[in-house]
Amino acid sequence: MLLPVLLLLLLGSTQATHFLGTVMTYYPKQTHADGSVTVFVRYKLNFRSCLDSDTWYCSGSCGSSAVTLEEVDLEPSGEWCQREGLLTLVIFPYFDTQFVLAGGNWIDNIQNAVVSWRALTGVELRKRSDTGRANNSPQTTILPLVRVPSNCQRDFNLLAFDPDGDNVKCRFGSDSLSECYPCAPPSVLSLSSSCILSFNETSSINETSSINATSSIEGPYAVQLVMEDFPRQDITLTNPSGLQETKTANQAISKIPLQFVLQVDPAVPSCTEGIYLPKFLPPTPENRAQLFTRGNQALEISIIAEARNSTISELLFSGPSSMVKNSFGSGNFSLRWTPSAREEGESHPVCFVVQATSYSVKYHSELRCVIVHVGYNVLARVNMKVFSSLTSGGNVTDALLQEIKEQLVRLGLPSNTTLNLLKSGSVLVNTTIPGG
Question: How far apart are CA 146 and CA 8, in angstroms?
């Protein structure tokens, strides 16, 4: 009989109001001769305090592992602290494997009546017929709390990336599948399967309305989502004993939880970005941009924002626990990360917002997320239009290649990217990232 294995036991979670969600992802690293798979598991725990924690359990043949739990980021006024747990497990994919987090309670005054927390990860490690390897989970992350004024429409384009190239879909958690308790999707949100979470404003400010009026929808909401990967064509999953199962494009392979708090704030005088709500400026990466680095080589992400009628106070982010943020004043920030050599071949999600204040009221920018690919040389074909003015006597090919390179660097490729002209209208991009 297989018994649940205790994965994490730090400070026991008694009945307290301090939870702000969680995320879990996994990467299979090696399949052994006996069929077992070494798996890297990463998860985020979001609480009021960095001293709070809870227990993840594994049901299945998971073995055991020492746990490291490191701080990712914390909100300066004490609203939340996010920490990242890292596990290396050896799992035998003969049986269904699930990770479960359950306890209580969410923070006070949750508007959609969620009290206890529960999150579920469904792990699939059988060999895929299309890749010849064990399945990777979708990769994503999220801040513990994101804000939106009650009178502003906002779309949260959640990061949904799959290393196997699968189609990633999002849905609200299901009570019948024990994915949350209760699941109670917030009435103020709608969710598309492509992972766009939409908040629709309920009021607007005009001559007859008061900025100080309290909307009935204001307050925190527990957002409990499930992210699943679907194959783009029929595939076969094979366990170590040779038993097979077919998955169609309509059947999920694995699933991970994505849980956080949406804070609906009082109405703001203007929903236009750059007035009260911070507005991102170049060279801040676009949402869902893909960035590249290598093990033991530092990557720096520059983030700039402005707001005329509020004061930008800080950058808040969710990403690897070893990522470091820096502030240079006047809305200028950076995130710097040096991945380890063992992270080569992985793709890591990073999400961030800029927070501003006005008379103690907090405002968030839009949520932006990027994927950082760690590892090997990247070869790509690029289709793009370039408009360039050449000085008399200039070399057309060299000038165009330089123009294309500058644009690609602005989009996140390393500055040592090399370009080669294959033929008229076709450019080969060879991104070579040296170690160290």
Answer: 27
E runs forming strands in 153-218: 154-157, 167-172, 189-191, 196-199
Q: Which residues contact 73 (CB under 8 A, 6 or more apart)?
A: 81, 82, 143, 316, 317, 318, 325
CA distance 234 to 249: 6
Pairing of strands 368-374, 289-293: parallel
Q: How far apart are CA 230 and CA 244, in angstroms?
A: 17
Q: What are phi and psi of 98, to 5 degrees?
A: -135, 145
CA dihedral (158, 164, 165, 171) positive or negative: negative
Helices and strands per DSSP (H, E), number in the chain: 1, 30
Q: What is the pLDDT of residues 141-189, one digit of tens each?
A: 999 999 999 999 999 999 999 999 999 999 999 999 999 999 999 999 9
Q: Which of 195, 201, 200, 143 is nearest to 365 (CA)?
A: 143
Nearest to 100 by CA among 67, 65, 58, 63: 58
Q: Residue 370: enclosing H or E segment and its boundaries? A: strand 368-374
Q: Please report, in angstroms and rounded to a whole number, the separation of the first and last CA atoms in the chain.
A: 48
Checking DSSP bridges between strand 19-31 and strand 37-47, what pairing results, if any?
antiparallel
What is the average pLDDT value for the chain, to the nearest integer?
Answer: 86
